[in-house]
Amino acid sequence: MKPKMFGLLASFLLFVIFIVLSLVYQSTIYLYIASALPIAIVPFLPDIRTDHFVKANRTDGKVRLIAMENKNGSDTDFLVLLVEPGYLRWNRGRLYFNLADVMQDVYIKPDPMAATITVLKYDLQLHHRKKNWIGISLPQLAQRTEQLSYTTNEINRLLISVSDLQELMQASVKRQAAVGQQHIGA
Hints:
Layout: H1 3-25, H2 28-36, H3 38-41, E1 51-53, E2 63-67, E3 78-83, E4 94-98, E5 116-119, E6 124-126, E7 133-137, H4 138-144, E8 157-161, H5 162-185
Parallel strand pairs: 1-4, 5-8
Antiparallel strand pairs: 2-3, 3-8, 4-7, 6-7
Helix pairs in contact: 1-2
């Protein structure tokens, strides 16, 4: 069991115990203790709003993950995450998308009013539990838009390099292999 989950269960159990004690013994002291315990519970509560998960191609067209075609028909160089302007929650820590949701052979209509921002490899991170989920650091993107002529709410395209994604995946495989060898040798 994770320490944070253990702390949450232990503090909640103490809260319930002191409420029951205050009812059984009709003691205000136990009630005062129980009323102060929620302060001990709050640090252990999960922070649900830190990440933003999008299911591309399944959100009524609000988010689409598209592989850009090369003119010569070879492998794609870029993925484009198309979003409706204002859809992204920029106050979240990371935007996660699933690589399995990539759409092939989709035409993107040229839009002169499209606001695009490039996602650098330093903005990318693999999700530590979910396979094929890639995270994009939204605060870093928001910081880079400060020097641009448009705001974060106007951005409707995130341009992601496939080579950066491959490098991220290879680094993860190497890291897992190194951890596996450490366990074997121990």
